[in-house]
């Protein structure tokens, strides 16, 4: 790791905060002095949602825009999604995962606990593509939990 820190062109981390933290003894694990000397080449790249694009207040891809003062409109988006995906329109919590369908993403672990998850009286939506074996297993769960499970082997921003 020391050689990588010293000789790489650019250093990146999962956030600006973490870029700061790894320059300290607590989080640097003995590399903090080397990382600190490379701070001009160290960038924190945020993982997660870019709120300038995926902001429900202005997002053109959702049915009803909302913010913290209009949270009641959020339900209209949920109901639309339930209807579009042939789920029962209900007030059950809806769990959604958008990902590459792969064991590296933990989808095999979700499959192992899938029945227990569904016993919690929830709905489940999966959007993505990947390992055909895992895709097939999820599609079987969709049949088992018709009305509460929608497995979508594709990508679709809407």
What level of helicity do the residues show?
25-40%
Mean pLDDT: 93
Distance between the termini: 41 Å
Helix/strand order, N-terminal first: HEHHHEHEHHEHE
Helix and strand composition category: alpha/beta
Query: What's the arrangement of strands in the largest beta sheet?
Result: 3-4-5
Rg to the nearest angstrom?
21 Å
Provide an overview of this structure.
The protein is α/β, with parallel strands linked by helices and 158 residues long. Helix content is 36%, strand content 13%. The protein has a three-stranded parallel β-sheet. A two-stranded parallel sheet has the order 1-2. The model has no long low-confidence stretch (mean pLDDT 93).
Map the helices and strands.
Elements lengths: L1 H6 L3 E3 L2 H6 L3 H4 L3 H6 L4 E3 L29 H11 L9 E5 L8 H6 L1 H5 L4 E5 L4 H13 L4 E4 L6
Parallel strand pairs: 1-2, 3-4, 4-5
């Amino acid at each position: 790791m020391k050689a990588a820190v010293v000789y790489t062109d650019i250093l990146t981390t999962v956030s600006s905060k973490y870029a700061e933290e790894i320059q300290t003894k607590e989080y640097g694990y003995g590399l903090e002095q080397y990382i600190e000397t490379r701070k001009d080449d160290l960038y924190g790249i945020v993982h997660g949602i870019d709120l300038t694009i995926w902001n429900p207040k202005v997002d053109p891809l959702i049915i009803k825009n909302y913010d913290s003062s209009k949270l009641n409109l959020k339900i209209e988006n949920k109901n639309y999604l339930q209807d579009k995906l042939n789920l029962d329109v209900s007030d059950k919590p809806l769990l959604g995962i958008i990902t590459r369908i792969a064991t590296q993403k933990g989808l095999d672990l979700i499959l192992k606990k899938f029945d227990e998850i569904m016993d919690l009286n929830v709905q489940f939506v999966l959007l993505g593509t990947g390992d055909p074996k895992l895709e097939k297993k999820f599609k079987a769960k969709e049949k088992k939990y018709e009305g509460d499970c929608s497995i979508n082997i594709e990508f679709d921003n809407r």
